[in-house]
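MODEL INPUT / OUTPUT PAIR
PAIR INDEX: 1
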Amino acid sequence: MIKNMQNYKYKFSVAPMLDWTDRHCRYFYRLMSPNVMLYTEMVTLGAIIYGKFDYLKFNLKEKPLSLQLGGSDPKQFKLAGEYIKDRGFTEINLNIGCPSARVQKGSFGACLMTEPDLVAECVNVIHRETNLPITVKTRIGIDNEDNYEFLYNFIDTIDKKSICDTFVIHARKAILSGLSPKENREIPPLKYDRVYKIKEDFHDKNIIINGGIKNINDSIDHLKKLDGVMIGREVYQNPYILTEIEREFYKSNNSPTRKEVVVSMMNYIEDELSNGAKLNHITRHMLGLFHGVPGGKKWRRFLSENSYKKDADLKVLENALTLTEVNV
């Protein structure tokens, strides 16, 4: 398979999180970091093709943005590509890592690790339809297939049979029955060395690590051996860490204060409310903005208790700001 391999420039990314990293969340994150790669929530091919809503809607200010897809039928990938190709996404990511029973029922997610030939075919189909870079997000193994050879063969097959040259690897195996998705993020042990070994054996591929990474120092250590780092829950709980990431990895000296982030969000929220959005659907992503600073708990409590109320508007945010040290 002929490829035009280039170094992956998005050294830092925020993980796709179902029911969390929606378009409001991503707009909020982008105010603090112009450079990290953001991901959509996983969107199934069926939702794109047959859904009543526009599941591909996003604000162009969210870019760079990766559309994460869930599916396993090459014919559906071809059909979905018609809807995706002109929407403006930066890249497409295939979800080969989710262990949930609902995803398994649809024959995609982590269970597809046993079908690398099919994954390679899907990669090529969606690439032909959209002409976008395609990446694959996966685990280090599933159930009893928990050895390096299994992961190596999976990566090797996709590498040889598709145009994919970028792999995001969650450094835990997935247990497909008996554990919830939350438990699958916590119970299987992290095996970072296995991801490092993949980079050694596929040195000309972009290998991005995910799983259990909580701070900048850990990220710096991983980047000594790998091409990128992906963080999920830690960013959601403490989103202002994105400004630290900008300074450390992108040498930015123009980080907004938390107050400036809120003020910028007000303009966005005003537009969204006028179009029928509910305030709490947006502010739920902002609860951790003042994490670890004076007034942070009061901010969180006030938004939680008032954003959901009927006719809640920007005054809720204005009042919440008065409870914080707003110059941080």
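PAIR INDEX: 2
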Amino acid sequence: MHAWEAAPSVEGRLRTAPPHALVATAARLLAQRFGAEDVTLFLADYGLTVLQPVTHLPHTGDPVSAHDGPAGTAFTTQKPVVEVTADPATELVHLPLTVRGDRLGVLTVRVPDTATTSGTVLALLDFATALGHEVATAGRDTDLYLQARRTRRLTLAAEMQWQLLPGRGCARDEYVIGAHLEPAYAVGGDNFDWSTSADHLTLTVTDGMGQGIDASLLTTLAVGALRNARRAGIGLADQACLADQAVYAQYGGKMYASTLLLRFDLATGRVRAVDAGSPRLYRQRGGTIEHIELEAQLPLGMFEETLYEEQTFHVEPGDRLVAISTGVHGTRSAAGELFGESVLSRILSATRQASPHETARSVVAGLVEHVGGEDLLADAAVVCLDWTGRGTGGTPEPRSAD
């Protein structure tokens, strides 16, 4: 056998499996390599409340909590959990299914109790990572995994919005991002977006005015215009200008989108920012939480040919940034109390040791509690970023927005 004719790897076998047959292929491979008896792929639903098993669609099996129990613990902590079962000969291993920081769900594998050594668990974790990448890729060719995430039908506006998002998380050595969006099954105009390169991270939070399809169409245009300008290599302020022109050309000032644009230098921690509307940005440094005051400029599309200017501030290793849309900071309770900085500060202080993903979810959960546990009337987007940076020790540039 020639070198190029060697037996295919696990990754290779998963890659060549039909998109709809990934679970069956994974079960077969796990049985061969680890003696696995049962294999279940759980995917997190859009609201991040439950983990749904991928079975024979359009029906899924019974869901389990995304926050409690062995599978929920594996999902929230992003660590494998070994569960001792009633069968003394086997154990269940719950493995987080994550792609580049985007938490997809959990892979649960029943293996012989003699197989749950640390080396085997690490090998199973590598397998889950490979499967996660294939599930993410398969979403281009099958609806199976998108359908499995749903506890109920999405509105058309929400369908459009979720397809527009890059994911719900992203991780590199320099940063970790976690984001959450509500109402998950009926969201219309809120969006977050990011793109990373060798030396920079661009992050945006957009809030399109209106509700339903109108808001979703507006946000789709604004985000598409921002991406088009960004991919042309244009600076941050000019990205806002071109998106502003695109939105105004379509709506003539009758509809507009509020956007916060941030561009991080991964080596220095210098952040360029354009505040085009109402999303707010907070920085948590040590025990201090502060609102980063940026010059409020006009939303995209409100007036013709608006000019935008960049500001700068710095982040340091250990900083946490939290961006929230109007649907968070502008929401009032039934008693008329605004979800203001005091409520947000309490939540951020309580979740300082939690991951960015869990912090973003907790902010939205606190918002729902603030309004009395009812469905949110306005979209709410929260993006949480933990900054590590590269620690180059370079001389910081002058600060203009700290």
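PAIR 2 NOTE: The two ends are 64 Å apart (CA to CA).
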